[in-house]
Amino acid sequence: MTSDLPATSPKVPARPAAPAASRGRLSGLQPGAALTRRQKAAIVVRLLIAEGATLPLADLPEALQAELTTQMSQMRYIDRATLKEVIEEFADELDGIGLSFPNGLEGALSILDGVISPDMAAKLRKQAGMIWHSDPWESLAAFDVEKLLPLLKRQSPEVGAVLLSKLSVSKAADLLVKLPGDRARRLTLAVSETAKIAPETVRRIGLSLAAELNAEPPRAFVADAVQRVGAILNVSPSATREDLLEGLDQADAEFAEEVRRAIFTFPDIPARVAPGDVPTVLRQIPQETLVLVVAAADDKTQGAVDFLLDNTSKRMAATLRSEALEIGSVKARTAETARAEVITAIRALFDSGEITMVGAEDG
């Protein structure tokens, strides 16, 4: 009988109270007929609900939930003696259970969390397709926008529209803002066509998307190798940077080219920073550093220096040029350090979202 019931059930009362109307035999049974296991399960569930117990019936497979509901709809009354026999049998079976195991892969993985490796857990989830017993959209809603954005970009407009429709309005809006204009328009149009999608189809889409996200193995580093190497070389002395890139060209030309595209150096400022963001950038940098950068301008960096000065106030630009003339020449190492400080400040503003990189790839 326990196979038709949840693994965990509240304590059954020793002497259940039955309503007066339940003193007849079970409706539809011949006198002395034996109860089936489904009928016994329905009796136990009905009693527990009447006693105010909260049963995790939603965790049962849908077929069992349907069978239980159908069986309960076909029953009427039982007498006290039959009720007592069923409850005693149920209690005896509960007493005989020595150990219970979780239902499904996710339950097993929750018990084994910290015991098996995260990579193995992710692999098992992926192989099993991550079957959820609860709403997969709740799992998706827990992810932040930066995690959902790559997932959304990989989907067709129809699937992407379902994803946007199931998320909160604010999160969906944040995702649309980060998409290219034409892609955002296609998704918006597709949202208008989601009204006729069947609930089961929406659930299957949710299961697939949630499995795709949850099956990703944990990473030791948030950024990929290209981004990490590019960030390091951004603030490295130019001689060191060129030497390392030359070595990368010989070892892995394709990787070296990707790193070059990821590098953002001082001469790149006019191409990657919007003119209107220059005042925000300059407020993050000490004036003495800016003076060094202006004083150390050469053929490679003069364009970036002029760009910064042309897009700040005339008074500030005049002050920086005046102080730069006063300090005269600047040592190469000091100049490199000052330029690296400017690049680091700009990178921090990009990462925080305070300014947006011009010409950044949409991914």
Describe the structure.
The protein is mostly helical and 363 residues long. The chain has three domains: 95 residues, no CATH class; 83 residues, Annexin V, domain 1; 128 residues, Orthogonal Bundle (Annexin V, domain 1). The longest helix has 21 residues. The chain starts with 36 loop residues before the first helix and ends in an 11-residue tail after the last helix. The N terminus is likely disordered.
Characteristic key phrases:
363 residues; mainly alpha; Annexin V, domain 1; 20 helices; 0% strand; elongated
Spatial gap, N to C terminus: 55 Å
CATH topology of the largest domain: Annexin V, domain 1
Tell me the name of the CATH class of the largest domain.
Answer: Mainly Alpha
By helix and strand content, what is the structural category? mainly alpha
In short:
Helices cover 61% and strands 0% of the residues. It has helices spanning 37-50, 62-73, 80-96, 105-111, 118-128, 136-141, 145-154, 157-166, 169-177, 181-191, 199-214, 225-234, 238-251, 253-262, 269-272, 278-283, 287-295, 302-310, 314-327, 332-352.
Helix and strand topology:
Blueprint: H1 37-50, H2 62-73, H3 80-96, H4 105-111, H5 118-128, H6 136-141, H7 145-154, H8 157-166, H9 169-177, H10 181-191, H11 199-214, H12 225-234, H13 238-251, H14 253-262, H15 269-272, H16 278-283, H17 287-295, H18 302-310, H19 314-327, H20 332-352
